[in-house]
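Why do we care about 3D structure at all? Because function follows from shape, and shape follows, mostly, from sequence. That is the central idea of this module. The next example makes it concrete: a single protein chain, its amino acid sequence, and then its structure expressed as tokens.
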Amino acid sequence: MSQPLDPEMFTGCSHVTSPFRIGGKWTPKIIRCLEAGPRRFSELEVPLRGITPKVLTETLRSMERDGLVTRTVHGGIPPRVDYELSALGRTLLAPMAACCAWAAAHLPELRDARDTHRSPAPTPTRARTHETGPGRKTGPPSLSPNVEAS
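And the structure:
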């Protein structure tokens, strides 16, 4: 038997909000889009096919709040807004590259595991008793609603 988990193993960690925000669907992709430099909102929408403007806005705001991106508003009509990775956001590039390398090396295994999980496991057949028709089992004889018990 393995050792029980230490109840204090997460002491010192925030139990309310995790600081890690790169696990979402769009955040890593946005980081990748901003890797080469600042981009406008409309530029980010192009490679992020399928993202709605609302979700892109929410994700960028969340990333700005966490210090991963900076938002710069330039004067003019209409105002121009650029998003850029902050120094903190740039520190995620190396771990993300490691994750990409891991995924490339293990993608076939990952797909096999997912396929195996999706496949229904063979179910054992049950003995059927007292069947009167397809899918109907009978228990003790019951009285018809029109027959009185004697």
